[in-house]
Each structure stands twice: as C-alpha cells, then as structure tokens.
Fold this protein.
Amino acid sequence: MIDTAATLSVKNLTKSFVGQHGIVHALRDVSFEIERGQSLSIVGESGCGKTTAALCIAGLQSLDAGSVTLSGKNFSAASRAEQNQLRSDFGMVFQNPLSALNPRMRIWQSVAEPLRVHQPTLSGEMQHQRAQAALEQVGLGAQHFRAFPGELSGGQLQRVVLARALILNPKLVILDEPTSALDVSIQAQVLNLLQELRDTRGLSYLFITHNLALVEVLTDQVVVMYAGRVVESGPAALVFAKPRHPYTQELIRTIPEATPKNRAAFRAINVGQIQAAAEVGCAYRLRCAHAKIECANVVPPLATQTHAVACLFPLS
Amino acid sequence: MSSWVRGNIFAAISAFGLGSIVVLALLAPYLGLADPTQIDFALKLLPPSAEHWFGTDGLGRDIFSGVVHGARVSLLVALGVVVIAAGIGIPIGLVAGYAGGWLDTIFMRISDVFLAFPPLLLPITLSALLGPGLFNALIAVAISWFPWYARIVRSTVLSVKSELYVQAARAIGTPPLSIAVRHVLPNSLSPVIVQASMDFGFAILTTASLSFIGMGAVPPTVEWGLMVASSRSVFLEYWWTAMFPGMAIFLTVFFANVLVDSVRDSLDPKLERKP
C-alpha cells in the first residue's frame, strides 16, 4: 500500500492567525498531492500563504483543519514524539542558509545533527564519516568540514543545508525559497545541484518560491496560490503554456524577459483589502482585468481535473 | 596577546595589574612573607619601612603580607560568587525562556522578589540569617545575584529561540531539551559571560563590604574588608592601616572592570568570525 501512496498528500489545509487587524486567513482549504519522484512548486506573491503552507506541512506550525500525509503515514494527526520520528522522512531547506545553521557548530556537526537525532546508536566516528560523505556529495571539500558557518559563502552554505536535508536519504525535500537569498550565479549552481540530486536519487521536491524560472526547470506540478487559496494547479508545462487563471497569467508575465515589451505592473493593494475581498467572492477580483459582477458573489470552486482552475471565467 | 590589548593601553595596563595580583595571590605561601596572622604587640602600628613595606596594624601584623594573602581570599570568593550565581541563574533563565508559559511566570516572579530588594540589603539580610563566615557571605551574595543571570539568559533565549537554526533543528526532529542545550544555550551565553566578568569586581567589593560590617569573614581569616574594618579606630593617625587594603580592593575592582569593558566586544562571536 505504501508503495502506491503519494510521497506527500495535503488535504484541506486551513490556518488562520489573529493579527492586528483581525483574523488573517493564511490558508483556506489547500489541497494537493506529490506523486513519488515528482516535484511540485507552490507559487504566489508575498503574503499569499505559501510559506505558512510549508511550515504547516513540516509540522512547525499547528493546523486549524486538514491533514498532511507522508508516504501513507498521517503526519498531522501524530503526537509530538511520533511527528519527530516521522521527520526523518523529509528534509527541509530554508531561505537564508546562514541563519539556518547554528553559528557555534562546525559544518560537519550541523550536517550530522539528523543522524544524532534519528540514529542515536551510530558512533561519533560514523556520524563524522557520513557527514563528510554527504558534504562531498554536494560538492564541498574537506577544508570546509571543520569550518564555522560564518566562514563560508552563501552558495556553500546552501549546499551545507542541502547536505543536512539529504543525509537521512529522505524521499521528500521541502525547500522554502531556496534561492532567494543567493545571487544569480550561485542560484544557477544550486539549481544544477538540485537537478542532479533529483535525477540521481529520485527525490521529490516541494518548492515554495516566487522564482518562476526555478519552477519551469525543476518541477512537474505547479500550485498557484492567492490570498490563502489555490487558484490554479496542474502540470508545470501546461500551466505555463496556457494559464487559465488571470492571476497566473499576470504572474507569468512578471518573469523578466531579455527584451521586455509589456511587463505587467500589478495594482498595489494592501493585504487587508485582499483579505476582506476573500471573505465573499473571488479574492483576485480587485485586480482582475476580467472581473465581472458575479465574481463578487461566489467563491469560485477549484475544479477537479489535472489542470484545475478556480475562476468563474477561466481564460481559454 | 591578541590585538585588542595592543590597541588599548588601558586594557593592557589593567591586564598586567590584575595579572600581577593573581600571580601574587597564587604564589603567596611561597614568597617567604611574614605570617599575616602573627600577632606581636612589640611591632604594632609601625609605619611602612624596608622591613614592613606596608607597615603593621594595631596587633603588629604585617600589612603587606595581609594584603597578598587577602588577595587569595578575595579572588576566590569573587570567583565563587560569580560561578554559583551564574550556575543557578543560567538553567533557570534557559528553562523559563525556552519553555515559557507557567514555568516562565513562576521563575520570573520569584526573581522579581529578589530584585525588589536594594542591592546590598539582601546579602546583608541573608548573611545575618546564615551567620557570619566567609562561605556564608559567598552564598548570600550568590543567592542575591542569581536572578540577574536568570533575567539576562531568559531575554537572550527569547530572541535566540526564534532564530532560523532553532526552527531548522525542530524540522529535523531534535527533541526540545536537546534544542535548548545544544542550540539555544551556546548562543545565549555571551551576555552572561560579560555580566559575570563585570560582577567579578563587584563581588570583591560586596564581600569586602560584608566583612567590613562584620557579616563576612571572621578572624583569623585574612580578608581585605576585614583589614579595613579592624583599622577603623586607628586609621586617622596611622593611615597605612586602612590605605593599603583599601587600595588593594580599589585597584583589583578597577582593573577588573576596565579589562571587562574592553574585552566585552571581542566576546561577540559574530564580530569575531566574520571573514
């Protein structure tokens, strides 16, 4: 049964926070699945709930409702201790690698931390060896093993974080904005490394990103989020070629081109307005070029098909 | 010596001064000095001379020998105060800050009670309760001071526990106790180390004060505060009886504080390790 189960299955994830201006619904009914060996990206602008989604999936944030299932095992319903056990099934990579590493631990110690936690019987010697092997695999040399995080560059640090995420051989790696703290040439190195690791190890990635170039290169599926809801989802190639939600279309247009012609400029709207609009009707209608009266009355349901869209008047 | 000493003349002088005091204290029994507890009324209240560098006191004891031997006591007591206060305060602050909730409330209200007393009143009250004696004075000061350490650690822990590497450790599945001890504590210690080294000077001062008012060291222990106290009736005419132990207290505290001030910055790992 486990063989056929999806690597990650997320159902009806719901989460709200009490903020300064009332309740903010960060996630409303978010569902998606990652099949074995496949990769998925959650894209959307800042504040759309994608990072909250990652934290909820990783169990770093409690859920209001919904479930997270890892390779057939119910992660979100597990007790704290059981959750900690299940954490060996996925690795996590954060946005800023420098702050994701304990400044007082040597590189190899940070990388060996998952071994220490999940394979406590392993000798210190073995931990050291496995950490070295993991670091070599991401292309870091022996001169870095005993260094402190402050002594390495951003690209090297992101490799360290990746080595840590991969040392237990998980099937899934959750990457929250893995490239946004890196400059462009380093981004390319990291993307190449991610691609290589996926191909050699059959990894699944869950990307949280607004780097759409990364989405195109590295993922099979895309989930587009807006104001806490999934507005469009489907195979990356299809969504990019034929976006059906007006928001997705605008998002794709913001990818910088070599020769920009009509780069879209989003209308600036504050989060409060978006949240208010999301209560009734389509949250995107305030910015949507195609909005009609009906959009204010009905929350558009997400159709259940491979290339799904939550829009009353999808683009064709 | 590292570069900060070379760059800072006051720090260098203080390091040298405090170093000399420590060396003298360590070597005191091997210097061939007069027994600081030896009473000889034939020699009482002699002014400083080649024979008695700092003169003698009302009971004919050699003051130089007393000052040197007193350094052993003062330095050891100060170290004990700081170590015990930090030893109690650090775990309490760590638990309160990391666990939060009712544990935090209980620990912090208890420390509020301690902090509500005027600084010297609590040590005096506690040593009065425990009875005179240097060890009791040490305990009294340490107990009065541990809430400061708990407070400092707690506030650092509160900011450190929201760091990304702590979240990363949670994502790995590291158990809470291990996160607190391996990730949060090592990154919360620099302010405590600074505080402890600053308190070192004040600990000398406070125990000397306690001894001075009769709440600390009791004879025949040789202690600076006690030496100043025993000169009370004679020091207007025989200045050296109060002057030299007093100077010893002043210089040790002064050197310690100047040194700490200049060391403080170099304790920050972020400043140190940036390439």
Q: What stands out?
A: Chain A has a mean pLDDT of 85.
